[in-house]
Structure to design on (161 residues):
């Protein structure tokens, strides 16, 4: 039962994280590009500032939620263990891309003056950030899919709990 509870928390955290990242990728970030440069820069700064406080602990919690699932596994050679480990590695790689790619762009966007920033500079920064974010979304999708496969491959001996 402990493993099922840990697995549930892992899938909940990684599922919400993946959905959030995908929603930003296809939803609100593209919508910002139609705003005038000043409004776009203010919106980017507001979103970046807010997510800068929320996402680090959330991403960390999602990655750390794999640890108890992996540590409670009975067979470290099982498909369940393998897929769960791959999922953790995908999310860890996503966090590395965040630190190496997205965060420098975020810092630059927070430094931009909404009153003087050119639309071209803003769009160039947004495109650079979006390329890193696309990689992160692929890693999130692969990580969540792997976590799901790990849960589905778990040997439960057809017990309900």
């Amino acid at each position: 039962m402990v493993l099922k509870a840990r697995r549930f928390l892992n899938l909940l955290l990684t599922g919400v994280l993946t959905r959030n990242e995908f929603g930003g990728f296809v939803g609100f970030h593209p919508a910002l590009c139609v705003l005038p440069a000043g409004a776009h820069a203010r919106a980017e700064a507001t979103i970046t500032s807010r997510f800068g406080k929320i996402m680090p602990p959330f991403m960390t919690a999602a990655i750390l939620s794999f640890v108890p699932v992996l540590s409670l596994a009975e067979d470290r050679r099982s498909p369940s263990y393998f897929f769960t480990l791959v999922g953790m590695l995908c999310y860890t790689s996503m966090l590395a891309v965040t630190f190496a790619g997205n965060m420098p762009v975020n810092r630059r966007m927070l430094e931009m003056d909404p009153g003087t920033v050119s639309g071209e500079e803003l769009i160039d920064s947004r495109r650079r950030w979006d390329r890193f974010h696309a990689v992160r979304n692929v890693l999130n999708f692969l990580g969540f899919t792997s976590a799901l496969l790990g849960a589905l491959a778990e040997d439960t001996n057809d017990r309900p709990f």
About this structure: Helices lie at 2-32, 37-64, 66-71, 79-111, 119-152. The chain has a mean pLDDT of 92. The chain has five helices and no strands.
